[in-house]
Amino acid sequence: MKHNSVAEIRALLNNGLVEELLFVVDELDRPLAPAPRSQVIRERLWRRASGILIANTSLDQILCHKRAATKDERPDVWVLMFGGKCAPGEAPSETARREVGEEAGIGLGENSINFFAKVKSDNHHQFEYLHWAPWAGDASSLAYDQAEVAEIKWFDTDAAYANLSLPAEGWYCYSPQELALIRHIGALAS
């Protein structure tokens, strides 16, 4: 019996040859059997998602990105977090590391990620695990996935907060806890 590598499975997913399975949970965040992404979205099944904010605390900045216009959820808007839905059996911190690597091309070590909060989103039918990590790289040098991300750039924490709290046109805030996370990052920079 042949076992596919993670890279081979990702290639099959990216080429649409197999459908992504998601980590399905009940309304109390207890694991259930995995289900295909299309079924999870269509039937509004509860699932786990994970996001990560990338911060340059020495400059009091947050790396934000504009989602690609072709995304099936929240296309063509600026967001604070890189992230996505958890794969079956995947820890939320693993999802955060995987997603920022896939979407932005940023490789983070296991110990560089900081947990911030777990949010139950009734609107999205998901438990959102919020993380943050320090990174001080050049955004213009990132080789990001253009199927996921249209643009990436640094914003001062005050500007990011203002864009998400109003909310400004073209920006999307997933939860109020994101605003609390921005303030947390701003306090670290002070």
Q: What's the topology here?
A:
Layout: H1 6-14, E1 21-22, E2 35-36, H2 37-42, E3 47-56, E4 61-67, E5 78-79, E6 82-85, H3 92-104, E7 114-121, E8 126-134, E9 149-156, H4 157-165, H5 176-189
Parallel strand pairs: 3-8
Antiparallel strand pairs: 1-2, 3-4, 3-6, 4-5, 4-9, 7-8
Helix pairs in contact: 4-5
How would you describe this structure to a colleague?
By secondary structure, the chain is α+β, with helices and mostly antiparallel strands. It has 5 helices and 9 strands; from the N terminus they run H-E-E-H-E-E-E-E-H-E-E-E-H-H. Helices cover 27% and strands 27% of the residues. Strands 3, 4, 5, 6, 7, 8 and 9 form a 7-stranded mixed β-sheet that branches. A two-stranded antiparallel ribbon has the order 1-2.
Compressed to H and E, one letter per element, the order equals: HEEHEEEEHEEEHH
How would you describe the shape?
A: globular
Which structural class matches the secondary elements?
A: alpha+beta
* Main sheet record: 7 strands, mixed
How large a portion of the residues is in β-strands, by DSSP E?
25-35%
Number of strand segments: 9
C-alpha termini separation: 56 Å
Instruction: Give the averaged pLDDT, no decimals.
Output: 90
Helix content: 25-40%
Uncertain residue segments: 1-6
Number of helices: 5
| C-alpha-based Rg, rounded | 16 Å
